[in-house]
Design a protein that fits this description.
GO terms for molecular function: polygalacturonate 4-alpha-galacturonosyltransferase activity. InterPro entries: GAUT, Glyco_trans_8, Nucleotide-diphossugar_trans. This protein has about 550 residues and is an alpha/beta fold. It contains 23 helices and ten strands. It has helices spanning about 10-30, 35-50, 50-65, 90-110, 115-135, 145-165, 165-200, 205-220, 250-260, 280-290, 315-320, 320-330, 335-340, 355, 360-365, 410-415, 420-425, 440-445, 450-460, 470-480, 505, 530-535, 540-545, and strands at about 240-245, 270-275, 295-300, 370-375, 380, 400, 435-440, 485, 490, 510-515. Strands 3-2-1-4-7-6-8 form a seven-stranded mixed beta sheet. A three-stranded mixed beta sheet has the order 5-10-9.
């Protein structure tokens, strides 16, 4: 006999659970219907082992516990699990799906043992249950014959179990099904990634329509009506100058509108827009039709910058090379959805566009200015930004919000530290920062030859050994130890991929940034973040209405 000893409430509880629930759990898992007499004999045998005194303690503890139990919750699946505190509406649906999983395992066993009669019964019952369940998500969606189907499946499973049940074989089959399901999930995730990246790099039909209509109307204007007023402000260093490089008319309009609607002195703000030749007419026409309050605006075509050529710019030279064309258009071309998911991002048009790399040539584009605020076209401005021009950058070139946490968004995430050029010149733990809203001191830029530093690193990366893609990695290298950290409230990121940003953080931010695939002008945008962007669009505007743009 086991020696008796004082038993704590916890120990008593654990013993009760093991004593009374073990047969029930076995029944739930393996479908065994243990007779009450067998359960009693089990209890009796256990009681002999633990001793009479301990058993009396168990009984007393059970009686005391029963007094505190609410009889209203008895009969639920599991009294101790929080998720079962309320009645579930899909219990039968889940049970029928579990039956079908069990039936598939027995089908494999039946086929391997040449029990074709059982195999056929299982197959027929699975097909019947699938028809009954259909697309039901709740028990209320099930047809009246659902209980009959459950009963019929139970009978077939009981017959199969009686003739073929083998625990080791059963476990092997379950493992095989789990591995197969895991592989299917991985494949579906890859397909999902591929499709989301594909959606992110496409322009919706409505925005394409808007651009085309505006372009047609612009080129119908006589030349004298194509000019913007206040051109004398474009080189006035005492005003607040913005650089915005975009091929998306609607996105650019939101950036300009949101900036000026929150500006205290809009007449002192100057917007320098650069776009490509395809959208040059549309961008001009939009802002001619919708002049930005009292501010100054100017639109240029990147293709008119004749100095920006392959003999001067390494990235242009690389984009024209056969090796780069192979990398972007052949080697990375997927043959299936799942295989293409990891490569599609390398072929995103933004990585091939000089609009994306023009940020490294700001003094060349605006030689008369001493400071300029660079804005991405997937941001929304919510506060007056003029204090940024008075921010002391402490001799640095770039003012930006840092993005690193304890162990993420540091240099080793973006750069290849196995390469000696990187390892010898940079700290892998250095903090990353964000593009999207950056204050650049162009005087310091020229003194420190920032464009020359960029050219050096871009040339060294011709074989993509230092970083794979994008403008942030070369930006981190180029502005290393030349970046002044701004207060995080100036620029809140993640609205294009992070669903859990605190609402107060968003509403207190000066600039919010939809970086990521879920851009606010796409259907895959996160619904709860979209209103921050759409509030700056006039959906009653004739061009927007005619192109069927909707909130």
């Amino acid at each position: 006999m086991v020696p008796t000893k004082p038993t704590s409430d916890t120990t008593v509880g654990h013993m009760l659970i093991r004593l009374f629930l073990a047969p029930l759990l076995f029944s739930v898992v393996f479908g065994d219907q243990i007779p009450v007499t067998d359960q009693r004999s089990n209890i009796a045998s256990v009681s002999n082992k633990v001793g009479d005194e301990v058993f009396v303690q168990l009984e007393n503890a059970a009686i005391e516990h029963s007094k505190a139990v609410d009889s209203a919750v008895l009969g639920k699946y599991n009294l101790w699990r929080r998720e079962y505190d309320t009645e579930h509406t899909d219990t039968k649906v889940k049970f029928m799906r579990d039956q079908m999983i069990m039936a598939r395992i027995y089908m494999v066993l039946a086929k391997s043992k040449s029990k074709l009669d059982i195999y056929e019964e299982l197959l027929n019952q699975i097909n019947e249950n699938q028809r009954v369940v259909g697309k039901a998500n709740a028990d209320a969606d099930l047809p009246i014959r659902a209980p009959e189907a459950i009963k019929a499946m139970n009978q077939v499973l009981s017959k199969a179990k009686g003739e073929m049940y083998d625990c080791n074989t059963f476990i092997r089959k379950l493992r095989g099904m789990l591995q197969s399901a895991d592989e299917q999930v991985r494949g579906l995730k890859k397909q999902s990634t591929f499709l989301s990246q594909l959606a992110a790099k496409t322009i919706p039909n409505a925005i394409h329509c808007l651009s085309m209509r505006l372009s047609i109307d612009y080129y119908l204007l006589p030349p004298e009506q194509r000019k913007f007023p206040k051109s004398e402000n474009l080189e006035n260093p005492s005003l607040y100058h913005y650089a915005l490089f975009s091929d998306n008319v609607l996105a650019a309009s939101v950036v300009v509108n949101s900036t000026l609607m929150n500006a205290k002195e809009p007449e002192k703000h100057v917007f320098h827009l650069v776009t490509d030749k395809l959208n040059f007419g549309a961008m001009n026409m939009w802002f001619l039709l919708n002049p930005p309050r009292d501010a100054t605006i100017h639109v240029e075509n990147v293709d008119d910058f004749k100095w920006l050529n392959s003999s001067y710019c390494p990235v242009l030279r690389q984009l024209e090379s056969a090796a780069m064309k192979e990398f972007y258009f052949t080697a990375a071309h997927p043959t299936t959805l799942s295989s293409g998911s990891s490569n599609l991002k390398y072929r995103n048009p933004k990585y091939l566009s000089m609009l994306n790399h023009l940020r490294f040539y700001l003094p060349q584009v605006y030689p008369k200015l001493n400071k300029i605020l660079f804005l991405d076209d997937d941001i929304v401005v919510q506060k007056d930004l003029t204090p940024l021009w008075h921010e002391d950058l402490k001799g640095n070139v770039n003012g930006a919000v840092e993005t690193c946490g304890e162990s993420f968004h540091r240099f080793d995430k973006y750069l290849n530290f196995s390469n000696p050029y990187i390892a010898q010149n940079f700290d892998s733990n250095a903090c990353g920062w964000a593009y999207g809203m950056n204050m650049f001191d162009l005087d310091e830029w020229k003194k420190k030859d920032i464009t020359g530093i960029y050219h050096k690193w871009q040339t060294l990366n011709e074989d993509r050994a230092l970083w794979k893609l994008g403008t942030l990695p070369p930006g981190l290298l180029t502005f290393y130890k030349l970046t002044h950290p701004l207060n995080k409230s100036w620029h809140v990121l993640g609205l294009g991929y992070n669903p859990s940003i605190d609402r107060s953080e968003i509403e207190n931010a000066a600039v919010i940034h939809y970086n990521g695939n879920m851009k606010p002008w796409l259907e895959l945008a996160m619904t709860k973040y979209r209103p921050y962007w759409t509030r700056y669009i006039n959906y009653d505007h004739s061009y927007i209405r005619n192109c069927k743009l909707r909130t």
